[in-house]
Amino acid sequence: MERRLYIAGFIILFMALVAAASDKLSTYIAPATELNTVDKTPIHQFDTNGVCTCIPYDNEEELESAPKLELNSSLISFVKNYNTKNGKQLDIAKQKKQKYFTLLDSVLRENEVPAELKYLAFIESGMELNPTSRTGAIGPWALMPDAAKRYGLKVGKNDERLSYAKSTAAAAKILKDMYEEYGDWLTAIAAYNCGPGTMQRAIKKAGSNDYWKVQNFLPEETRRHTKKFIAIHYHFEGHGSLVTITKSELEKHLAAVAIYTANRHGHNTIDSIALN
User: Fold this and answer.
1) What pTM, to 2 d.p., does this model score?
2) What's the average model confidence in pLDDT over 15-43?
């Protein structure tokens, strides 16, 4: 009987974690460095060590053996080499544009998307306004005229794509819609670069929604764009987050968290969950 309750409790805990991820994946609730205590609702952000804030704890030493978010093995070499080569320039650029990083962080949170998406604007424009463009994509988020209009921005005279706040709010809505379409932020980031049409064709050719399979059918520019985003995220944050992993990678991580939590708290905690 006890064993059955243990198994049932583990399944319930895992399903609850996955459900929480689906509900909260698009919402930034707390700074990434804030850790959850036992009386807080689980959220899926990651501290400076890549430990999920959904893990309850009594003291930080308990988290030393906790599952950590891992960089996809296919990117380890790229991220290391990119940041070794460009790290100093990235730090200088961010220091010069710090006030815009702060502004974008705030607007993204207000629009209930991960604040780490600000690194996409950094890649798109270097946080510059870029008032002119050969392709027509201008502003810190490199928004095309049609997309900007669809999401409520004025284009032309007094072009609102050149407003850091307004263009960020529009980009947040675009990315949120793409997230809802594709199921994870990483695919949404790639689609922001190549366009929904190209992404849909790639998904069809891949026969999968998993970005690591879909990327093989995307333009080289988009693949490199996404890798650079992940590398810059790791450089500035020191770890990954919801925007650097796929849905399947998140589910795998949450499964490891569920096992870790069950093993650490033992049968009593799991049985309590099962019985309640």
Assistant:
1) 0.78
2) 40
